[in-house]
Amino acid sequence: MKTLAYLAGATVLATAFAAPAFAQSEIATGANATGISQVNERLNDVEEAVRDDFNRSADAYRYGTPQQRQGVFGSVALTYAGRTGNSDSQDFTLAGRLSHNQGPFSQSVGLLLEYGENNSGDKDTEKTYVIYEGMYSFNDRFYAFALGRLTTDALASDPVSLAGDQDFGALDGRLKRDAYFGVGPGYRVINNDTTAWRVQAAVGVRYTKAVDVLSVDAVDPKTGTFEYVSNTEVGYLLSSRFYHKINDQFFITNDTDYLTSDTNDTATNELGLNFKMTDAFATRVSYKTEYVSDRAIRTDNTLGVSLVYGF
After folding, report:
1. Chain centroid to CA 139
2. Alpha-carbon separation of residue 155 from 117, 170, 244 (angstroms)
3. What CATH number did the domain enclosing 212 receive?
4. Which domain of life is it from (predicted)?
5. What is the C-alpha to C-alpha distance for residues 270 and 254, in angstroms, rounded to an integer?
6. pTM score > 0.85 for this model?
C-alpha cells in the first residue's frame, strides 16, 4: 500500500524546471580500464537525480494545462549487456513512452521491461511495468485525472531471484502481479501569479497476487509450485499541492497525500524550499514525513538537500 500511495499521489505529468546546465566531459583514453567510466556514469546519475528533484517541485500544472506539444509523440530506449569469461550473465532493459495531447486533454502510457541472468546463467529478473497518466482540464480551476499501473514479476516464486538468499520463507508475500487504477476530480483553490493551491480526491482499486509460502496449503500438490493469494481492495485518496513564489529566485512548495484502505492508512507530507539564485546556481532543501499505520515504527522523516552549480 506504501507503493500505491506514491503512485496515486503523482497526479501530474513531468515537466521541465529551469535548472542550471551541467558541464559535459569527454571520456578520456583508458577510462574504461582504469574505472573512470564507471565513476563518470555515477556522476551522470547524481546530476539527473538533482534535475528530477527540481522538476517535481515546479508542478507546471499548478496554473492549469501548460503549453505543450500537441498530437502523438513518444520515445523508446533499450540497453543490453552480455558478459562471458569469469562470469556468464546478461541484462536487458526496454523502456518506452507514448503520449497524446489534444487541447485540454493530455495522456501518456509508459512501458518498462527488465530481464536478467546471473553468473550461473539462470534468470534472476523478469519484470514488466506499465503505467498510465491522464488529465483533462475543464477550465482554469477544475480538472479530472486518471492513473493506472500494472507490475508483473514472472520470478516472484523463484528463489534464484532472491540474489543469494535461498530461504523459501523470504518468498512469502512477494507480488507476482500488482495493479492499480484510480480516477478523481481536482480543484485549484488559489490560482494567481504568486500562489497556487490545488486539492484533489480519488477513488482507486488495487489488485495484488502474492506468493503464499507459509500457509499449510502453500504448495500445489499437482505441480509442486507455490500457491498464490489474490486480494482486491478499494483505496481513497486526498491530496494537496501548494506553491508560493516569494520572488523570482525563491519559492516554497508543500505536497500532502493521504490514502486509506482496508490494509492501512498512509500519509506523506513534503515541504520544499527552492532557491534559484542565477541560471548557474540553484538549490532545494526538503523535509519529508511519511506515516504508515501498520508499521512498528509508524513515522519516517527524511531531510533532503539538492545543490547544483554550473559554470
Report:
1. 28
2. 12, 13, 46
3. 2.40.160
4. Bacteria
5. 6
6. no
